[in-house]
Every structure is written in structure tokens, then in C-alpha cells.
């Protein structure tokens, strides 16, 4: 197993291209199950989670090929099952549930795994499928679904759920009649999925708002080659990297409008940010980082997936910041590791009180989840001395070539065997 070694204290300067969004690519791959044939996706990141979904689709009978993007042929899919061995490492595997139920009338999907950042039950997915006429049983750690053609209905989510919105939107695309999703997730990844489903022949209105209407159709076909949207969390992470190292970066192939909430917080912290159509230039403040409060909210609010990275930045602020985690109840596992680097952080329920320190110092740290890993890398880039980040397989789930991109802008970062 590899670890990342970082010699910190170097201001990052240069250009970083942003990769495609993992959280957009995964539901697009699941959507290919809705229509037999060849589906083509470009700007797909080469990540562990993408490979896991590729293996999961292959288990069902799909064929895949990488050639200027990812091609999936679902004509031979005949096994509507998602086994524990593949699902246990990635929660997004549950996205196959809706498409399998809609196309095959049955599914056997293991209860999902993924990052241990708090309870993320799929009861909203299951309740929605039941409202559409599916019969659901839980047996031996698996969800068993049986149904005829699903029926359109009105589904009101008790809380905003991105994967729940995506799963039921895919299921509704082949249902009989109209399905209305109320309190739906508004994330750009939901919109990207809706756009490809529309290319496939689905009839969807309201994606990107809290109410999505889907008129079911009898069948779907593969859409035209679809480019995955840029990764807004990777974008935000590199914006913070410029600020925390006292550097200046230009990010290309990105969507500035997708990170508006993050940019507003960085501006409040004193960073200089200039946006173009698909570029962002960011410079660290000349007079130091200002401490800023933040609270996570569903999109378009400040993303929970940027909370750990923003906290790393605030460890070097000029005062005290309070960071509230309002999405997941167990997403402060990076705090103890940041404290090993010299951060002054106190937890108070679902809030972290961060008192800025003059500098961080390198130390061995351990990653606990995907975004926590990123925060430790950011802190290591700013710290004096050497930082060893172990268990970086978490990083490989969500950041494409992170160490290579950072080296290209001046970071001293490399891999070693643990």
C-alpha cells in the first residue's frame, strides 16, 4: 500500500486542468442500464470508484472499452444483481437499483458501503420505489426488488438526497405516467444526468430545481456521446491549495458557476479570485488568511464535500472560525489528524471551532475518508517539514492524478510504499 510524502512550505504556482466529476460519471454509467446498446462518455476520470462501477456493470453482462473516453455496451446485460464484493467499497453502487427495477422488473443489490462519514440510509430510495409499485424485501444484506412496470406518482423526500433523486429519476424515466419528485436535489450532477436521460428519449422538466417532473416513456435508446461535467469538488480543493500555500493557480476546464458558494467563502477569507467562462485564477492574500465561519448545506449552499478542505485553510486564519456540519453527523474525523499537524480545533457537537495558528508542522497522519484525505494533503502542503499521509486509497477514489497535478505546480510530493 502506498502513502503520500509531502515536503511542505512551497507556494504553488501554475496551471491545473480539472478532471471530469466522479459523482456525475457514476450515475451516467448506471443510466446505461436503462437502454440496451452502446453508450459513449467523454471526460470520464480514471478513478477507483469508476473502475468499481465498470466491474459492477461487467458482472451484469455489460462490455466496456476505454478509447478517448469510456464506451459501455449494455446490449447483453442479463444479470440484474450487484454483489457485496463490488458494492461494499462504494455507496454509489446503489444507483443501479432504479435502472434495474425499471428495465428488468427485478433487482438484487447489496446494501452499500463507502466512506464512513455518518449514517446515509437508502430508505428514501426504497420508499420511493415502493410508492411506484415495487415490492421490496431485505434479505441477508441484500435489497430484493420485484415489480411490473413501475407507476408514476408524487414522491416527497423527507430530506434532500442526491443519489435518491438520481435513482428515482432514472426509475421514473420508464414508468407509466408522470412522476413528481418534490424536495429534489439540485446539484449539477443531477442536471447532468437529466440531460443525458433526455438525450436517451426521457421527458424530464425541472432538473436543477426542488421539483422535478418525469413523464415516463415506453423505451429509451443510447444518447449521443456525452461529456461529463467538470468536478466541482476537485476545483474547490485546488482553489484552497493556492490559498493555504500562499500561491497562485489557474484552473482550466472547470465550471466557475458550480463552485459559487466556495468562491464566496474564499473571497471572504481574503483570497483573490477571478473567473472566466471555464477558468478560475486564484491568488493567496498578501496579508494572510482571514478567519471565516461556514456551514454546510445542500446545493447551492456550501458543500459538505468541501468542509474538511476549508477547515484546513482556516487552521491558518487570523482569528477564530466556526464550521458547522449540517449534512452528515460524523464528518469531523479529520480533526484529530489536523491537530497532529499543529492545528487548534475544538469540537462542539456538529460544530468545529478553529483558532488559527501561525504555522503547521509536518507529521505522520492517516486518512479516514475521501475528503478528509484531501484536507490532510492540503495541510501537509502548507506545513513546515515532512508530512506522511497513509491510507491514500481513499484519495484514489475521488482525485485523478492528484500528486502529479500538484508536482506540476511546484509541490514536493511523492509516493512511497508503507
UniProtKB/TrEMBL annotation:
Predominant cellular place of this UniProt entry's protein: cytoplasm
Gene Ontology biological process terms from the UniProt entry: cell division; cell wall organization; peptidoglycan biosynthetic process; regulation of cell shape; UDP-N-acetylgalactosamine biosynthetic process
Chain ranges of the Enolpyruvate transferase domain: 7-406
Active-site residues, Swiss-Prot/TrEMBL: 115
Enzyme Commission code: 2.5.1.7
GO molecular function, one term: UDP-N-acetylglucosamine 1-carboxyvinyltransferase activity
Reaction(s) catalysed (UniProt annotation): phosphoenolpyruvate + UDP-N-acetyl-alpha-D-glucosamine = UDP-N-acetyl-3-O-(1-carboxyvinyl)-alpha-D-glucosamine + phosphate
Compartments, record wording: Cytoplasm
Gene3D superfamilies: Enolpyruvate transferase domain
PTM sites of type 2-(S-cysteinyl)pyruvic acid O-phosphothioketal: 115
Pathway listed: Cell wall biogenesis; peptidoglycan biosynthesis
Presence of the UniProt keyword Plastid in the record: no
Keywords assigned by UniProt, alphabetized: Cell cycle, Cell division, Cell shape, Cell wall biogenesis/degradation, Cytoplasm, Peptidoglycan synthesis, Pyruvate, Transferase
Membrane-crossing segments per the record: none
Entry's Gene Ontology cellular component terms: cytoplasm
Binding site for phosphoenolpyruvate: 22-23
Function noted in UniProt: Cell wall formation. Adds enolpyruvyl to UDP-N-acetylglucosamine.
HAMAP family: MurA
NCBIfam families: murA, PRK09369.1
Assigned protein family: Belongs to the EPSP synthase family. MurA subfamily.
Name of the protein: UDP-N-acetylglucosamine 1-carboxyvinyltransferase
Originating species: Desulfacinum infernum DSM 9756
Taxonomic lineage: Bacteria, Pseudomonadati, Thermodesulfobacteriota, Syntrophobacteria, Syntrophobacterales
Amino acid at each position: 500500500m502506498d502513502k503520500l510524502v509531502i515536503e511542505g512550505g512551497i507556494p504553488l504556482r501554475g496551471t491545473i486542468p480539472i478532471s471530469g466529476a466522479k459523482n456525475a460519471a457514476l450515475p451516467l454509467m448506471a443510466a446505461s442500464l436503462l437502454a440496451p446498446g452502446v453508450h459513449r462518455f467523454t471526460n470520464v476520470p480514471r478513478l477507483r470508484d469508476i473502475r468499481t462501477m465498470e466491474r459492477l456493470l461487467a458482472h451484469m453482462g455489460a462490455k466496456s472499452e476505454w478509447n478517448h473516453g469510456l464506451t459501455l455496451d449494455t446490449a447483453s446485460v442479463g444479470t440484474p444483481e450487484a454483489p457485496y464484493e463490488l458494492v461494499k467499497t462504494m455507496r454509489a453502487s446503489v444507483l443501479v437499483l432504479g435502472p434495474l427495477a425499471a428495465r428488468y422488473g427485478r433487482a438484487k443489490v447489496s446494501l452499500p458501503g463507502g466512506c464512513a462519514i455518518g449514517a446515509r440510509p437508502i430508505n428514501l430510495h426504497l420508499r420511493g420505489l415502493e410508492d411506484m409499485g415495487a415490492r421490496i424485501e431485505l434479505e441477508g444484506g441484500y435489497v430484493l426488488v420485484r415489480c411490473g412496470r413501475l407507476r408514476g406518482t408524487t414522491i416527497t423526500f423527507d430530506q434532500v438526497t442526491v443519489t435518491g433523486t438520481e435513482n428515482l429519476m432514472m426509475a421514473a424515466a420508464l414508468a407509466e405516467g408522470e412522476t413528481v419528485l418534490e424536495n429534489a436535489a439540485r446539484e449539477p450532477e443531477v442536471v447532468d444526468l437529466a440531460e443525458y436521460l433526455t438525450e436517451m428519449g426521457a421527458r424530464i422538466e425541472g432538473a436543477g430545481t426542488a421539483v422535478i417532473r418525469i413523464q415516463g416513456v415506453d423505451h429509451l435508446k443510447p444518447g449521443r456521446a456525452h461529456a461529463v461535467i467538470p468536478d466541482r469538488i476537485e476545483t474547490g480543493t485546488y482553489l484552497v491549495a493556492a490559498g493555504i500555500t500562499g500561491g497562485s493557480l489557474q484552473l482550466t476546464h472547470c465550471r466557475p458557476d458550480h463552485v459559487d458558494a466556495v468562491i464566496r467563502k474564499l473571497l471572504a477569507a481574503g483570497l483573490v479570485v477571478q473567473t472566466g467562462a471555464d477558468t478560475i485564477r486564484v491568488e493567496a492574500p498578501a496579508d494572510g488568511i482571514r478567519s471565516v465561519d461556514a456551514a454546510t448545506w445542500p446545493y447551492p449552499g456550501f458543500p459538505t464535500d468541501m468542509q474538511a478542505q476549508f477547515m484546513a485553510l482556516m487552521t491558518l486564519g487570523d482569528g477564530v472560525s466556526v464550521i458547522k456540519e449540517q449534512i452528515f453527523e460524523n464528518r469531523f474525523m479529520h480533526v484529530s489528524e489536523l491537530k497532529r499537524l499543529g492545528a487548534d480545533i475544538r469540537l462542539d457537537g456538529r460544530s468545529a471551532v478553529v483558532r488559527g495558528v501561525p504555522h503547521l508542522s509536518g507529521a505522520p497522519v492517516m486518512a479516514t475518508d475521501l475528503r478528509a484525505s484531501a484536507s490532510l494533503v492540503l495541510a501537509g502542503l502548507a506545513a513546515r517539514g515532512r508530512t506522511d499521509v497513509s491510507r491514500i486509497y481513499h484519495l484514489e477514489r475521488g482525485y485523478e492524478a492528484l500528486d502529479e497535478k500538484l508536482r506540476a505546480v511546484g509541490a514536493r510530493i511523492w509516493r512511497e510504499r508503507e
